[in-house]
Automatic annotation (TrEMBL):
UniProt keyword Hydrolase, yes or no: no
Stored SUPFAM superfamilies: Acyl-CoA N-acyltransferases (Nat)
Gene Ontology molecular-function annotations: acyltransferase activity, transferring groups other than amino-acyl groups
Name by which UniProt lists this protein: Acetyltransferase (GNAT) family protein
Organism: Aquamicrobium defluvii
Length: 167
């Protein structure tokens, strides 16, 4: 399967279609694409937010957002990039698309922001499937947590260089 990332104009996020998720998956991944677009538009530091489509075999398979600099959440290390709103359409799950997208994100970070040494994320403590996925990808728990949109979220981190070795 050929998987790539395509940086998109933030104004086009709300129009993204074809990512099929269950209601709970969508909630854990940051809500609807329209909701994500609205929150991004309202952010005072949106220039540090980089939305990507995940393309698999020439079709939209998912979405992710990378944040850096002033757009980093409080829980992220200053030398990190944070991963948000990660979602893979149900039809593409468990086929390697998500893991490949994480590796592609690491390569993009290394190329465009070589000073960033870590990729960090938060995952809701009730989202066991996502936590297991991130741990399989190589993320490690930092021991930190914060109160997120839907409750307590644990912070995970992985060195960009470690993710790149998985390609």
């Amino acid at each position: 399967m050929d998987v790539s990332l395509k940086l998109i104009d933030p104004a086009k996020i709300a129009a993204v279609a074809g990512i099929e998720l269950s209601a709970s998956e969508e909630d854990f991944a940051g809500g609807s694409m329209i909701g994500i677009a609205g929150r991004l538009k309202a952010r005072p530091n949106s220039e540090g937010c980089f939305p990507f489509l995940i393309i698999a075999d020439c079709k939209i398979a998912g979405f992710l957002m990378l944040r850096k600099g002033q757009a980093l959440p409080d829980w992220a290390a200053p030398d990190a990039v944070s991963l948000h709103n990660f979602r893979i359409s149900g039809r593409m799950q468990r086929r390697g698309c998500g893991a490949t997208a994480v590796v592609r994100a690491a390569h993009w970070i290394a190329t465009h922001w070589p000073q960033a040494s870590k990729l960090m994320l938060s995952v809701n403590v009730e989202n066991v499937i996502a936590r297991e996925f991130y741990l399989r990808c190589g993320f490690q728990e930092t021991g930190e947590s914060h109160n997120g949109r839907l409750g307590v979220e644990d912070i995970l981190s992985c060195r960009v260089s470690d993710l790149m070795q998985k390609s």
